[in-house]
Write a structure and sequence with these properties.
With 122 residues, the chain is an alpha+beta fold. It contains 4 helices and 6 strands.
């Protein structure tokens, strides 16, 4: 029988995986169901307060995650992935916090130089 911490870790990892898959499939309605209304995004190039603001941006950008590794520690989930931004593939790390079976917080870190250099050439 699984202990409680294993069950929480599995659920958090599954919730994040399902959300990322829905975004990859441009199924923003189902992705939105996995995120709290007061979701907070903190990224290298900006931040967003609230799920509505975040998903408005996601619908415009239509990002695709190429997940390399995902692991969990309780309600914290870490994902290493490649992301195509401005025509450049960038390696990123996302730290997701899951609260009451929905994503509450996401912090994304990556080296922005390739994206900024690509944007300055346009």
């Amino acid at each position: 029988m699984e202990n409680q911490s294993t069950l929480i870790r599995s659920n958090a990892k599954e919730i994040v995986s399902r959300c990322m898959a829905a975004i990859n499939n441009e199924d923003f309605e189902n992705a939105r169901k996995l995120v709290h209304a007061d979701f907070k995004f903190d990224g290298v190039l900006g931040s967003r307060d609230g799920a509505e603001a975040y998903f408005r941006d996601m619908e415009k950008m239509r990002l695709k995650y190429d997940v390399k590794k995902i692991f969990a520690d309780g309600d914290d989930v870490c994902v290493f992935y490649n992301l195509n931004m401005s025509g450049v593939s960038v390696f990123c790390c996302g730290w997701y916090q899951v609260v009451q079976e929905k994503i509450k917080f996401l912090k994304v870190v990556f080296d922005p130089r390739p994206v900024l250099q690509s944007s300055s050439r346009r």
